Structures are given as structure tokens and as C-alpha cells.
Amino acid sequence: VGKPLAKAAANLIAGEFASAVNRASMTAAQAPLKAEQLAPLLTRVADGTISNKIAKDIFAILWDEALAGKAMSTVDQIIDAKGLRQISDSGALEAIIDQVLQANQKSVEEFRSGVAKAIEYATYLNVPQLNCLAGKAPAGVDPKILRDTFVSNLKYAAEELKKANIRLLIEPINTFDIPGFYLCNTQQAISIMDEVGSDNLYLQYDIYHAQRMEGELAANIKKYLPRISHIQLADNPGRNEPGTGEINFEFLFGLLDQIGYNGWIGCEYKPLKNTAAGLTWMHRYEQPQKSSIYL
User: For residues 134, 216, 204 and 202, what is the CA-based torsion angle, rounded to 10 degrees?
Assistant: First the structure.
């Protein structure tokens, strides 16, 4: 095991140990777990058998057993009993993904049926692009399986929408408003778009969500402009109309004109007071603008 991995594993377990000791109001010398009992846990993190998150869960089991005076399970016993080993073999992982998809064929069919229905509606209404929301990540599912499933679905949807001359969009959502939402930041979205590899997949950039998760609004808009096909806004905090929070929309609107954004800007916010009052911020932009703003 390389020294960097071993050091990272040691820091992780040391942090968990210190937190547990503090919660129990005891000293390190009084702790029911000793260094030799934690060494196998360090090894399994460092050699990639388990993830950091799983290591924390196993530490909690060991701590509770020791604190209660129970017969101690070994780290490997806990890993095997609960099926916690990570899969690093790509072929094995792909086989599992195929099994999951086969076992949930109804869900796959529902998604594909939904794509067909969305195309039908969009075509009738002359809608040029559609947003495929990732949704919340199911608890306990391997991150690799989550990503591969999402990528597979996006490949299918992007290709089907392309046949209908409709763009596919994905939108990162902040995890403060929706805890557990899978797609939650711009870098993750761009990485997934790269993996999908479709020329019909674009980013829906929501200024409010981006501000909450990462900031760097101007820099990211400029950097990813060729891949952004729609922008939405709301101020922060509160998700109310522009001018009620911290975001400098006058600067951002000017930037969008300067860099040549020619799409729509969706106003997806909750009026602070009422609908009429929530529209007054637009009066300063009543002169013709290069960027369009819609409600």
C-alpha cells in the first residue's frame, strides 16, 4: 500500500477515534478500542477493499461492540457479513450493472417510454430542448453504478431527442434544498457530459443552484458557455427575485451580452412579496437587451 493512501486512511480513523472519545467524554487511554484493533481497518481502507464512508460505519460497529463489552467482530467478518467489499474489476462491475438493469427492466422501460412521450409533447408544442433531471440517489447504491446508469440513460435520451431535432439538457441542483440530489455541481455535470460523448447534450445552468453549491458564477459561465444551452435565475438567499440577495445580476447580464449568450434566461424564483412586486426588478431592463428574459 502506498504511503499517501496509508496516511489518508490513518487520518480518517484517527478523526473518527477522536470524535468517538469526545462524545463519550473520556480520554484516549480510557477508550475501549485500542490501536491494534483498528490496524486491520486502516489496512482495508488503504488497500481499497472498503471506502472511507464504509470505514466510518465499521468503526462505529467496532466502537459500539467494545463499549458494550461484547465479543469483538473482526473487520473482515463485518465486511463479509454485510457485503461491504468494493468492486474494482470493471468487468465485474459492468456485469452487476447489467444485472441491476435486467432486474429493474420495468424502470428502464418506464424511462424510455417517458422519453418517447416527452418527444411527442415537445414536438407538438414546438419545444426545442428538454431537461432530464437526475433525481435523488438511492441510498446504499454504489456510486459507480449510479453514474453508469445515469450515463446510459443520457446516451439513450440524447440519441432519441437528436432524431427529433430536440436538445437534451441536464441541470445540477443544490443539495441544501434537495438533499441527496445526484447531479449537484457544474464540474460533475461536465464530466458526465464528456462521458456520454453526445453532441446533443447540453448544460442547463441555474444561477441560484450554482451559487449555493460552488459560486464562481462569472468564471464558470464564461468557461462553459459553448456547452450551456439554457440559463435560469433566482437570487440567494431565499430563491427570490433579483435584487433581494447577494448576486450581482446587473454584472452577470452584462457579462452574458459581452460573451455572446443568445439564449433565454428563465426566471425560476419565488416572489418575495407577491407576483406584481416580484416583477418590478425588470423595469431597469425595459430597454432592448441582447439577452432575453422570460417568465
Answer: -90
For 115, the enclosing helix (H) or strand (E) is helix 105-125
Whether residue 79 contacts residue 50, with contact meaning beta carbons closer than 8 Å, is answered with: yes
Is 171 one of the annotated active-site residues of the chain?
yes
Burial of 145 (0-12, 13-18, 19+ CB in 10 A): middle
DSSP per-residue letters across 12-55: HHHHHHHHHHHHTT--GGG-SS-HHHHHHHHHHHHTTSS-HHHH
CB 133 within 8 A of CB 171: yes
Sign for the pseudo-dihedral over CA of 12, 16, 18, 19: positive
What cell does 78 get? 463485518
Separation of first and last alpha carbons in the chain: 56
Three-class DSSP category at 267: strand
pTM of the complete model:
0.66
The model's pLDDT over 97-154, given as tens digits with 9 standing for 90+, comes to 566 566 567 778 889 999 999 999 999 999 999 999 999 998 877 888 889 889 999 9
- Grid cell of 208 as nine digits: 441560484
Edge-to-edge strands, sheet with 228-233: 129-131, 167-170, 201-206, 228-233, 264-267, 292-294
Which one of 171, 195, 216, 241 is the catalytic residue? 171
Whether the link from the prior residue into 226 is cis, omega within 30° of 0, is no
Which one is catalytic: 94, 159, 195, 268? 268
C-alpha cell at 153: 440513460
What cell does 126 get?
Answer: 414546438
pLDDT tens per residue across span 11-34: 777 888 888 888 888 888 888 888
Q: Which residues of 250-262 are buried (b: 16+ CB within 10 A; e: fewer)?
A: eebbebbeeeebe
**According to DSSP H, which parts of 235-280 are helical?**
249-259
Q: Compute the distance between CA of residue 89 and CA of residue 95 in angstroms, rounded to an integer.
A: 10
